[in-house]
């Protein structure tokens, strides 16, 4: 018995040393691949936003459904190729699964269509800032349907998100009105017409942005984010997008030339193919980032990533850089960071409560 008591602490100490050593090894391995995963996620998300903005920024571009169908085709080809190479794995196509996924796929079509229309009318900084409002909708959706909770710090982040959106809209409208009025134009009627036309385009942009926030929140609440969902959603969206393109969009030769001018056609098609591949890159880098870091770090990276995305719009598309626009981006950036911290604190509390419940039941 004495020997047993003496060896027991030694065994426990040895076990703790082994666990500490293995944890350090795991942490060192994770940290070595954490930076590349975060960098890849940031680059993929920034590049996809920039390329989509570039494609839909044509003066007379009106074939959004056809554009999205091409992106989905490229996405499916990339996913199947990566699966064949053994990088990822998911189930083969099944008719029963396809029927189950179709409503979610239709919802995804609405998400990507409204997002593309928003980018067509709004600048990248405005789009990025207003995208934060989707977080609020998701949070309250979880409260209503899944008994979720909203802490005080989370509410503070929501207020900051709303404030940044109001600032962004105010700056956007002012800059658009000032840009549409030419001081050299003597006719007041022409200036009024230009202002009204500019405001009408902005209203279109905010309308599509509202729909995008609503559909994105509905899609996020469903909780499908694996490779099976990506494969089925993109595959099933192709016939829907092509059907709507045939019914709604003009397939005349003049309109095709207007949307895909001969001088920039190859560049546009290459950009569309790249954006479809970037969607796969975002999904893979997201899973990579969560696997090598944590979901909290990933949410923080997503919050911090909004700053370079907004800055890239100012850099590459000449979006106005003013005190108001930078203030709106800054407030939105702080809101994202506060939200990530609030979710991290909430997760710690939930884990603590989950650990207390088994102990209390064991005592009883």
Any key phrases for this structure?
single chain, mainly alpha, 12 helices, 0% strand, globular
3D structure, described in words:
The protein is an all-alpha fold and 364 residues long. The protein is 85% helix and 0% strand.
Count the E strands. 0
Count of discrete alpha- or pi-helical segments spanning 4 or more residues: 12
End-to-end Cα distance, whole Å, is 31 Å
Largest sheet: none
Walk me through the topology.
Elements: H1 2-56, H2 64-84, H3 95-121, H4 124-131, H5 133-146, H6 152-180, H7 188-222, H8 227-248, H9 253-259, H10 265-292, H11 295-316, H12 323-363
Offer a concise description of the structure.
Helices cover 85% and strands 0% of the residues. The protein is mostly helical and 364 residues long.
């Amino acid at each position: 018995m004495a020997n047993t008591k003496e060896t027991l602490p030694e065994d426990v100490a040895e076990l703790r040393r082994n666990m500490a050593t293995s944890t350090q090894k795991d942490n060192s391995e994770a940290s070595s691949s954490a930076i590349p995963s975060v960098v890849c996620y940031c680059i993929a998300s920034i590049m996809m936003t920039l390329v989509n903005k570039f494609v839909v920024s044509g003066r007379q571009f009106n074939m959004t459904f056809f554009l999205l169908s091409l992106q989905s085709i490229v996405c499916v080809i990339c996913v199947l190729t990566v699966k064949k190479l053994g990088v990822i794995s998911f189930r083969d196509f099944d008719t029963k699964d396809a029927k189950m996924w179709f409503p979610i796929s239709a919802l995804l079509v609405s998400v990507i269509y409204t997002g593309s229309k928003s980018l067509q009318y709004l600048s990248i900084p405005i789009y990025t800032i207003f995208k934060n409002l989707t977080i609020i909708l998701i949070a309250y959706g979880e409260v209503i349907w899944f008994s979720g909770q909203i802490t005080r710090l989370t509410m503070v982040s929501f207020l900051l998100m709303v404030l940044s959106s109001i600032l962004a809209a105010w700056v956007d409208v002012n800059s658009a009105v000032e840009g549409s009025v030419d001081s050299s134009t003597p006719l007041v009627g022409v200036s009024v017409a230009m202002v009204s036309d500019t405001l009408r385009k902005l209203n279109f942009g905010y309308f599509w942005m509202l729909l995008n926030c609503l559909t994105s929140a509905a899609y996020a609440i469903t909780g499908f984010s694996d490779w099976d969902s990506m494969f089925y959603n993109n595959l099933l969206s192709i016939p829907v997008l092509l059907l709507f393109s045939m019914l709604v969009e003009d397939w005349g030769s003049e309109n095709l030339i207007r949307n895909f001018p001969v001088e920039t056609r190859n560049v546009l098609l290459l950009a569309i193919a790249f954006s479809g591949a970037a969607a796969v890159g975002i999904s893979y880098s997201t899973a990579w980032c969560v696997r090598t870091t944590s979901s909290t770090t990933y949410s923080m990276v997503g919050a911090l990533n909004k700053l370079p995305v907004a800055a890239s719009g100012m850099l590459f598309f000449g979006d106005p850089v003013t005190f108001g626009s930078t203030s709106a981006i800054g407030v939105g950036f702080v809101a994202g960071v506060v939200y990530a911290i609030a979710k991290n604190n909430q997760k710690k509390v939930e884990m603590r409560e989950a650990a207390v419940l088994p102990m209390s039941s064991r005592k009883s």
